[in-house]
Amino acid sequence: MQVVLYFRPFPGSNPEKLAGVREIAEKAHVHVQVVDEAPAGERVRKLLSFWRCGGAIVECGGRGRDIDPGAFGAVPAVFFNHDFETLPRRTFAVRHDSKSTGALAARELLLSGADHFACITEPANPFWSRERRQGFVEALALNGRKCIHFAWPETPESATERVRLLRAFIRNVPKPCAIFAANDALAAEAIAAARLCGTAIPDEVAVLGVDNAADICEHTNPTLSSIEPDFRRGGNLAMLTLLAAMRDGAAFRGPRKRTFGDLHVVRRLSTKRLRRADPVVSEALDLIRRKACDGLKAADVARTFPCSRRMADLRFRQATGRTILDEIQSVRLDRAKEMLLNPHQELKAISDFCGFRHPNSLRKFFLKETGQTLGRWRASHDSAHCQHILKYSSNVH
What we know:
The chain is an alpha/beta fold. It contains 15 helices and 12 strands. The chain has 3 domains: about 130 residues, Rossmann fold, CATH 3.40.50; about 130 residues, Response regulator (Rossmann fold), CATH 3.40.50; about 100 residues, Homeodomain-like (Arc Repressor Mutant, subunit A), CATH 1.10.10.
């Protein structure tokens, strides 16, 4: 069996990247051997020789500058999330479209009803952080809005120092303000800084991050809304590009540098502004987001209120503009759509993961809400992608 190496120098790397690579490799009957280190010099050559591999995929991220594309010699290699501008012209590379992420953030926050907008980028200002800000600023300008950019006055030496600097910034921004942070770690620090200022989230300051890192987003107070990049699609694209390079060799004529976009916005309490501030409703919303797909019922949510079922429904509707049941169903619908994007997920099994007792209940609900059957919705959202996979996997042996 043909072997390709997958260099993964980051212990916390999103697992969807590798899952996307393996999804395509399986179709092409290729084995993916993971190497948990950054590729370096002579060691790369020894690994390539040992595995007799036909190619490699290299995750880069913030350490891209330390990776030498020339170390792979004539073996095709695809660089995953590397700055295109710093790579040789004929290098194969796939990366997240950070500029489009900034535009998506602007669209999401414009809908929040904020009067002012701000952006927080990484202190070291890596390429992806710069591009996210650029996309955000340009999208706001298109809609006649300006962006307040937080420029780090110095490189902070610790997380405490970062929060101190952010605290001074958030205290002085005009409110209500919607803040876009270049990643979830920055967004979490912005939330911590806002809380230290006594700033109400999201009513005075709404915060949106990128990456949808559950270990961060689920543990901020309030929980953090985040844009989830389509890392699985990125992994698909990296493997497809490598397979084409392995197949065609010097005759390769396709694009050598490709980008992938975002999956969706995962809305949590850091951007979900209530019509009327109510801490009990905020807790109920968090419960619904976490448990809606586990069979949660409206009555279960109502029991968390210190009042009657009728008053609980009234308080919830006054604060959110929808009923408790509507909110539960909305979360379930989003979950069903997310699962439909996975081509390996059987349609009949999706209902079990979305809190519906019977598959027919999900089918009827989905048709009512979207006007499409489960199968038709999946086909309309993934047909081009599936054709792309089949085109390449059928030509690689």
